[in-house]
């Protein structure tokens, strides 16, 4: 065996990088195993390049400038800076594909290493749906769509989730003729229905052809481009197909069975992010856990792992982790959706407000939007919220705090927002919920008792 580390971190993305650096700074002997780019997908192929393209689109910049800006932001997709950060923290980076060989044993590129603690942070990978003919045509995943310099004339996006919607809006804004095929009847199906409806209107205004409730049955190469046959009998012609049909935790081929784990939808973790049912001391954070699948959630879980590995006791609380789609308008959601509440048997009170009624929307001459707040009637507390509106990712943070802190509705309804801001839009629904769910007043007799 080459070396025995205090800890080995498998996968050097958002979660893995943070854990490895934190442990090394605390004096631990740590190896980070990475087979692509230190930093993972967020800085090179996901969050940053997609937000860069969307910003350029909003500013009306030409495609060439947008690509130059995107590529500068991603450092040309090289990880020199991230690797230097690791070296500075005292982390040993082992380049290559890592595989667990048993409790406390990891193999990388034919060499075997030992470790007291193992942390699995291998992220997620795109799901390629089993569509007839898809394997024979040149397809893009989000990695390609966010790194190549080509602007396809006709682009078909398979999937209307966060990835599909962000990329459809970006490419349509730069002049591609874009169609989105979404199997369910709505965009962003996981969120409150109004959010997908507002976004659908916005995408249609950008010229996107939405095929909702349809699936792609077959794809064929034509003399000039591709033809897609849809399950509803429709057809679409394209030069490029972008698959944005979901992502799954990257667990295949990791050797997790040597730790006694059986294959599943993700690496199962408890509230401390320790892997359930694994032999040895094994932890996991980020997309591979299949829990929250965002960069901020990966960071949060990384901090939980770190605290526990450094001798503390910390549990993750996922009640108020935001989910944001950075389109125009932004779609922001946090906590429980009305659909989830129904599934959990929670009696929900809903109050909403159209952003068009705010003075800020009049000033900005903005696209329409809406906010909705969801409260648990039995406890009189906010448990979820959604908003579709410009910069909702910024002004909805107070609602995330309110859900996380369990702030009483009466107190929230007393908060003053600056005028004219979009933040004012939560005042009326908060007052409404506070009034509807007010704790019953005690009678004088009850008070005397
Ligand atoms: C197009 C797109 C846009 C997104 N935009 C946002 C956004 O705006 N905001 C947001 O919060 N989230 C966004 N996300 C989600 C976000 O990117 C992920 O949730 C986050 O990057 C997950 O971090 P991670 O550390 O779990 O995984 P990753 O960053 O994927 O890191 C995992 C690393 O493990 C490495 N690896 C895997 N297996 C092995 C192995 N066997 N050996 C060695 N190395 C291995 C991989 O090479 C990779 O570098 C977006 C996702 C996509 C696809
Ligand atoms: N801003 C952000 O935070 C951000 C942005 C992008 C992605 N992400 C993360 O990345 C993850 C993956 O996003 P995603 O949009 O790829 O996945 P998703 O699972 O959220 O959405 C995929 C969509 O594709 C549809 N679909 C699946 N197969 C299909 C088929 N054959 N034909 C037509 N439609 C089909 C599904 O009905 C679903 O609506 C998200 O869960 C999210 O956490 C986050």
CATH superfamily of the largest domain: FAD/NAD(P)-binding domain
Question: Can you count the helices?
Answer: 15
Bound molecules: flavin-adenine dinucleotide, nicotinamide-adenine-dinucleotide
Q: Kindly, what is the distance between the CA atoms of the first and last residues, rounded to a whole number of angstroms? A: 74 Å
- Stated plainly, the CATH topology of the largest domain is called FAD/NAD(P)-binding domain
CATH top level of the largest domain? Alpha Beta
Number of strands: 22
CATH architecture of the largest domain, please?
3-Layer(bba) Sandwich
- Unreliable spans are none
- Can you give the helix content as a percent range? 25-40%
Strand content: 25-35%
* Shape label: globular
What is the domain tally? Answer: 3
Helix/strand class: alpha/beta
Keywords:
single chain, 449 residues, alpha/beta, FAD/NAD(P)-binding domain, Enolase-like, domain 1, seven-stranded mixed sheet, 15 helices, 22 strands, binds flavin-adenine dinucleotide
């Amino acid at each position: 065996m080459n070396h025995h580390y205090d800890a080995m971190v498998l996968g050097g993305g958002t979660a893995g990088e943070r854990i490895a650096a934190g442990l090394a700074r605390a004096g631990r002997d740590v190896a980070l195993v990475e087979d692509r780019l230190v930093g993972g997908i967020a800085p090179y192929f996901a969050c940053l390049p997609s937000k860069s393209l969307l910003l350029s689109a909003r500013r009306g910049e030409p495609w060439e400038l947008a690509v130059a800006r995107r590529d500068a932001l991603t450092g040309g997709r090289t990880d020199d800076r991230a690797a230097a950060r690791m070296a500075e923290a005292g982390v040993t980076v082992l380049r290559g594909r890592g595989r667990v060989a048993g409790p406390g044993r990891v193999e990388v590129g034919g060499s075997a290493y030992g470790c007291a603690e193992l942390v699995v942070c291998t992220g997620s990978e795109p799901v390629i749906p089993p569509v007839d003919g898809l394997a024979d045509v040149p397809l893009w995943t989000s990695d390609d769509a966010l790194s190549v310099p080509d602007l396809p004339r006709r682009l078909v996006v398979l999937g209307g989730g966060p990835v599909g919607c962000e990329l459809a809006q970006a490419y349509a804004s730069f002049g591609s003729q874009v169609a989105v095929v979404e199997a369910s009847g709505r965009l962003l199906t996981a969120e409150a229905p109004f959010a997908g409806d507002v976004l659908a209107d916005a995408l249609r205004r950008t010229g996107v052809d939405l095929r909702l409730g349809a699936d792609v049955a077959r794809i064929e190469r034509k003399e000039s481009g591709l033809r897609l046959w849809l399950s509803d009998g429709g057809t679409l012609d394209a030069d490029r197909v972008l698959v944005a049909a979901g992502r799954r935790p990257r667990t295949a081929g990791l050797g997790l069975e040597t730790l006694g784990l059986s294959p599943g939808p993700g690496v199962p973790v408890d509230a401390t992010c320790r892997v359930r049912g694994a032999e040895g001391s094994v932890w996991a954070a980020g997309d591979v856990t299949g829990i929250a699948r965002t960069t901020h959630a990966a960071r949060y879980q990384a901090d939980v792992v770190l605290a526990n590995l450094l001798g503390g006791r910390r549990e993750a609380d996922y009640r108020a982790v935001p989910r944001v789609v950075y389109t125009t308008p932004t779609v922001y959601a946090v906590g429980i959706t009305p659909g989830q509440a129904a599934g959990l048997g929670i009696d929900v009170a809903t109050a909403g407000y159209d952003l068009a009624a705010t003075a800020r929307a009049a000033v900005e001459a903005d696209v329409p939007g809406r906010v909705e707040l969801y409260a648990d009637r039995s406890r009189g507390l906010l448990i979820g919220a959604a908003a579709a509106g410009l910069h909702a990712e910024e002004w909805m943070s107070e609602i995330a705090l309110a859900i996380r802190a369990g702030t009483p509705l009466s107190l929230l309804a007393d908060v003053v927002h600056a005028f004219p801001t979009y933040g004012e839009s939560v005042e009326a629904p908060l007052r409404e919920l506070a009034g509807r769910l007010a704790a019953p007043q005690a009678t004088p007799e009850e008070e005397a008792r």
